[in-house]
Protein 1
Amino acid sequence: MAREQVVTSLDIGNAKIRVVVGVVSPDKKEPHIVGIGISPSLGLRKGAVIDVDELVSNITAALEDAERMSGIPVHHLFVGLSGHHIESASSKGIIAISQKEVSENDIRRVLEAAQNATLLKNGHILRIIPKSFTLDEQKDVKNPLGMSGIRLEVDAHVVTGSASVIKNIEKCVHQSGVDIDDIIPASLASAEAVLSKRQKELGVVSIDMGSDTTSVVVYEEGSVLHSLVIPIGGASVTNDVAIGLRSSIDAAEKMKIEFGTNLVEEVSDQEEIDLSTISKIDSHTVSRKHLSEIIQARYFEIFSLVKNELRKVGRDGMLPAGAILSGAAIKMPGTLELAREALEIPVQIGFPQDIQGMIDKIDDPSYATAIGLILWGIRHTPPPRYGFSFGLGGLFSGIGNLFKKLLP
């Protein structure tokens, strides 16, 4: 008799560490969330480990909270990876088909060819995602398995990360007493949580704004068209406020959260903030209007950078499903309206979908990556652990099952 499957995620952000425990019943497709844990992320900076002991302590604290809430001991989990070191590129691979029909081995070989074409010094491939295949003269083939032909070509999207950064993250996770099922780019995980299959088919951009970075993934016809990590996030806004208003960084963060908005036109010129009420260091008074102008300028810059990327791939104003925003930083009032103005496409806030349980706690765009890791683990990575398609270790195993899950 089939048993319930426990799937756990670890979202290692630059501001927060989040752990989510989900249970999947054999007769249900949606995970039931039974535990969450959250702790400050103090051992990480810009996605890289700066203090092993501190990060291990942070991860352990979040794990213990999630285990206490769920009543389930966590032994292994899916890890979300973000940071400036994450890069992506398009790559092509070409092979001669070994038999008359395309086999799983042929698909492995053509993906390996695409992998070899994009190997970077000190780089580690996190994901190879096929956009489409060409079989002889037939283009835009989604799944060539079993088809007849002589030459097979793949157009793939490759996501890489710094080998040293990944190794240090792995070390911290293992020292926290758990094994790693797979390491998944946070950008893909958050998109998995907030985008529907139809949106991916029509054409959509997922924008996940975190503390240090903003992750962007563009989908079209069900596949990843383009992705990137912009090295600007919520912490950049805080730094701007501290500099612009000559305050401490702690006061700037409190100001941003308590008084910040992207709706500058709704703030009166006479509104002032007495910093002595929120800070033990600062005692001067600042204009809330000026605060909002500083915040709006940085947010507008981020969305302008996204728009430039869409222009590079010929999708500026050309995505029918628009943009879906997620991440803690997008909860700033007025962000939705500002994004619509800057991107000039439909924009909406993305909330985790296809989940059950604890909705009151996780129905929040800041949980997109943590929930997306669980959904990715259920949908795209068949067992055994560390033998997943397009992941670490056995990079190309389970091709047949993968195409049923990954491709439309």
Note: The chain has three domains: 5-83+164-194+353-406, 87-161, 197-352.
Protein 2
Amino acid sequence: MSQTRKNRATEKLNRRSFVKTTGLATGALMTSNIPLNAMGHVVGNEKLKLAVVGCGGRGTGAAVQALTADPDVELVAMADAFQDRLEKSLAGITEHFEGERKIKVKEKNRFVGFDAYKDAINMADVVILTTPPGFRPQHFEYAIAQDKHVFMEKPVATDSVGVRRILKSAKLAKEKKLNVVVGLQRRYEKKYNALYEQIQNGTVGKIVSGQVYWNSAGVWVRARQPQQTEMEYQMRNWYYFNWLCGDHILEQHIHNIDVANWFIGEYPASAQGMGGRQTRNGLDHGEIYDHHFVEFTYPGGAVIASQCRHQKGCFSRVDEVFQGTKGGIVARKGIVTDLEGTTLLNASKEHDPNPYQVEHDRLFASIRKKEVIADAEHGAKSTLTAIMGRMATYSGQTITWEQALNSDLSLVPENPTWNSNPPTLPDAEGKYPIPIPGVTKFS
């Protein structure tokens, strides 16, 4: 597909609001000594069969981008917990391509329910995993066991048990030479890679401190409907329940936390912080906080101040800022300065390709070239970093990396059904239990 056509497709997609307009990052290409015959079987110009598991807005957008990335990709299967979301997604994707013969999802290949992911994955060469993140470890584990290439959204788990499952499957994916791209888009953005190159070249010296932000007004709320079971209500309002979402420090702020880990080249040794609910504290806001502030301390001595907030009418900022021994970085502006404040680099994103599209372009190019992109491990470790921050704010304790990694606190039920109760239930007044610092346990 020509670059002009890709740009047209991306613009069209943005107009239809299938993809977020913020966020952005680069999957590490790795070479393995595993024999080529151990790789996924599709190479060259063969048709690639695509399946989508999780048909919300992000799944719809990722499907369009995947179909745009390679001329020989066909969407053959879709899966979601809800029939209405699947049908809406399929209609949007079909409309986007306006009759192009890329959409081949027969009615019998539209799978609905908690176990629907297996049927969809079985039909594909490449799978998109975009359900609420609580389900990601189980879905990723199955996809890799079935020898599928994967694009999966961040975060990749909501608890430490899930992170460990991801890490185990990530190792197997490398052994099988399967490509895995994680939707931490900043690693696929030209501007961020230019900044990273300056760090590697020593322009700013050693990073000793930084501030990372995701401060915004918050996200959607879906009202409880008559006759809705508790399980359906929580599934449709997944953002507000930790077993499904993991709180916004994980679901959104992971982007900024991941940049800190990437630029510093380490993962935190410990975290301590505070948080709570002040303005987003209604019955329809589940159990999560509306603000978190965490101090991450890294093995090499760097200290990162992390803040995220979902409060209307307040200061908003989504950014990453770093101070080094020789200079500083303001990532959102793409600026590198020396210690006197003189600009050394302005890596503006004016001519950057859309990183959401670049993720898929590189994924499919890597499959065709018999190369391997291996994002799952750093995706899992940045997920764990954000979980460690949540543990710190919920408990009021200092949490070490080892404590976070080895925690046995499991939030996600193994085999949920529509008739089972979710892990968290409201009381007689409709209130959910809220984490209390000094009381809530982290493991």
Note: Residues 3-186+355-373 form a domain with the Rossmann fold fold (CATH 3.40.50.720).
